[in-house]
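Re: weekly structure request thread

Next one in the queue (289 aa):
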Amino acid sequence: MINALLQPLAYGFMQRGMIAAILVGIVCSVIGCYIVLRSMAFLGDALAHSILPGVAIAYLLGINLLVGALTTAILVGIGISFLSRRGQIKEDTAIGIIFSAALALGVALISSIRSYAVDLSHILFGNLLGVSVTDLWLIGILALVVIIAIILLYRPFLVITFDPILATTLRLPAQLLRTVLLVLIALTVVVSLQTVGVALVAAMLVTPAATAYLLTRRLPAMMAVSAGIGGFSGLAGLYLSYYLNIASGSAIVLVATLLFLLAFVFSPKKGMLWKKLRITPVSKPGTNI
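Done, posted below.
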């Protein structure tokens, strides 16, 4: 068992991939708690697909793809906040409009690149084992920025998530805070591109947090449990991909999904099995039940 755990670590690319998987699992899971509590699951998927124009432009200009993705993700987050700030349209409608437009632009740009199927496939499906030292530093810095921002803005985010009326009473800049949250989610999406890719990033934003929601009752505990699940999923998924020779991104998501299903069935208080055990038949007068 020890040899099986240590063998992959003999390779530098596995060491870098493992660090990246754990970092991405943690940061996605923490920010994902707000996504789950605010019912914004569609947002993660929309932001992930909306960065395609930035990736295509960065490829055409010959610069780092993550830089293009980061720029587009921030612009998309701000754009969603701008369209929905005065209430003319709802946030999910703004997400749908920008998501569709950005995705169409991305597809148009990518289709003009003859070799896009080979060169950009790792953006769509992830390439954890291809993480370079530079990529690892960028992932680490962005993840640190997101975590520090969440810690500093924990109380304001808590108020606008659970009690918007109280946020108004306290004169909190609710719209600015929502914009900051959207930008943080966008940064998290960019952090996740190299590991799980555009196609699977929404799962890492939602699944660990949803699992933690079933197991906890308070937000700090939910964040801690979600981070543990995300980090473990990244680590276990990487080992699975190494020994089963499957894509690392899909392996990570499958591990996270398995943990969610276990929590869904066996979770105390909220688990399906627990709820069935709590339901007992009620005796009626004149019956032997």
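The mean pLDDT is 82. Residues 244 and 251 are 9 Å apart (CA to CA).
Next request, please.
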